[in-house]
Amino acid sequence: MANGSGDAVLRSVRSHRTLVVAVALFAAIATVPLVLSAPTVARASTDSATIAVTPVTQQHALDCEAAALQMALSAVGINVSQATLLAQFGTDLRAPVMRNGAPAQWGDPYQTFVGNVDGNFVITGYGVYYPPIVKAASDNGASAEGGEGWQPAQLYKAVAAGHPVVVRVPHLLAPASVGYWTAWDGRQVWYSHRDHAQTLVGFDYGSSTVTLADPADGQLHTYAMAAFENAFALFHAQAIVVSPGGAAVTQAVSPTTGSINIAVRGPDNSLRLYWSSDGGWYGPVGLEGPGAAFSGPAVVAEGNGNFDVAVEGPSNTLDLYWYISDRWYGPGQVGPPGSTYSTPSMTIDPNGHITIAVQGPSHSLYVFWNAASKWYGPGGLGAANSTFGAPALALVGSAPQTLEAVVQSGDAALQQYSEHSGGSWSGPNAWSQVDQQYSAAASTPAVTLYQGPGNSLDAHSASGTTRVGAPGTTFSAPAVASFGTVTYAASQGFGHRLDFYIDNGGWGGATIPGSNASSYSAPSVVVEAGGNVDLAVEGPSNTLYLFWRIGSRWYGPGQIGTVGSVFAALP
């Protein structure tokens, strides 16, 4: 909250400011013309990709899911033992009810691990399906998206973006069949005597092959793509895409009161807010209840002290919440269903107009903008397969400043789009070679930072590309802010520590405001009017942590949000 506390502000009020959205693309283009040059995406990297992974062997007869997830987590910088993952899955040790030598009734692998992990397969032990695996990945600081019915092309796009995928296919793709039992809770559960979890780490369209890391033998195996896809479909096309910890928190400082507002993705996809006032912290206020936030939020502070929060809403909408005179309003639907597939990026131009950029459908780039109290868009800046993750918006140049949008392309390259006077856009402009960008970017007027190859931290500016953090240091999208001529950056470091960098005529090495096991999402950074720096991040056990810098000294963590209050989403 910007100013108040108490019951009057601890509520969400709907529809008190008119939002008019021109959702037809031709209407958006008529208002702001879009001038696009030919894409500069190199096909080679999107035709094939391989994720570096150290194969492991499962430690128990039936813990292939734990071993496959262990490999996937390791590939995104998170080291967890199979024993820890098994404990997080939970276990139902009740014996099955057998009929004609097959289980007729047993536990629910969608809820917990079924049977004895060292038992006889489909007799005294079985395994676990995607929901507990997703939860375990999230509990250890990763972003994970699981389900059934995946299309193989979706898996290959994930691998191309550097995200390993836990899949279910037989060992060595042996022939298999599927049966069913009834779980204790009544669910019909499919099963197979050859059900096996492995990690998809590579594909090659040119040779029509895929590469799997198989915990049964601790080896990498390459198979015909068609054989893999047939086996994958048989096991209900079940998969879990694992990526580094995504966005969970965002913050902004009121220019009128100095109050810091922190918006978070809360439990059950809720949207919550915390705020400072007179030296104390308050909240959470529920901007919206369960089922409202399916990405990290974005927040901006307007010049008059009002705030705006944007988030991916249900059915992939773009939803807006706004603060006026001590009250919150919303949601207002800026983007229609099927328009938004990432954490939004939001900025305010010198005329006070809000612009929001998101990853649109089919990995396109969409932009929405506000003018004369009306919303327009989506304007399609980037074509299909141009944008793989949250874009970064920033005002650049001297007065009058102009907007730029920076995105990760399908071949892991940094691409930039520019808005010109009159509202036209051009791009993409290649800002890096392929296979150099492995996270969403973060931009200021002077520099754009992103996770580079080998989990490094790289910066692009007018003078070229600079290595800010060495390989093995960076395991999230960075956050960046500027104060005068100084630039501050932060990221999740190795071992879930929090790393902080300063560019004051040259980037210095990382200081560590948060020690190991303190950071479980991409952080957020703001600079107060006096130059103090504040870092907000998802802490252990889904808490909300704050670190603050006064002068050159760091303080914290201060736990603002309780256990179970903050949850990272896919970037």
TrEMBL record:
Residues 53-216 form the Peptidase C39-like domain. It holds the Pfam family DUF8189. Residues 256-427 form the PLL-like beta propeller domain. SUPFAM superfamilies: Fucose-specific lectin. This is C39 family peptidase. The lineage of its organism: Bacteria, Bacillati, Candidatus Dormiibacterota, Candidatus Dormibacteria, Candidatus Aeolococcales.
